[in-house]
Amino acid sequence: MQIYINSIQKAKDLEEAKARYVKLISAYAELKDYTFFNSKISQAQKQSLNLAQKSYEELFLPLKKGFNIALDEKGKELDSKDFSQLLDSKAVISFFIAGAYGFSENFLKNCDFTLSLSKLTLAHSLAKLVLLEQIYRGFCIIKKHPYHK
Hints:
Blueprint: E1 2-8, H1 15-25, E2 30-36, H2 39-47, H3 49-60, E3 67-76, H4 80-87, E4 92-97, H5 105-109, E5 113-115, H6 124-142
Helix pairs in contact: 1-6, 2-3, 4-6
């Protein structure tokens, strides 16, 4: 199985905790974590919401592979067991985390699933860490590993 996490993000905090979950997940899947932030995104975010969202979409569209999940505050909230079912039996999953302005409705409707990690607004690095922990927990549920208990 392959998992891709693609995010618009400046900060590199929580790297040690993130590395721990990447290592744990590697027992179950090959995980590739890509972080993007470039001058085009920076300029678009300074100009308008629409341009910012368009810059995210242009960057992410070529990266859509397999089962595509966008993280969005208006997405569906799942418990860990239901989240594990999203992972189960998929060969490739791609997660997408937008920049500060979120995704356009067009991008969201063209993904296979829209997920909300919480009704709270989370920093990108923290959202990614929560996502990684839930991916690991999901595999533990699927494989009946005691971590989930």
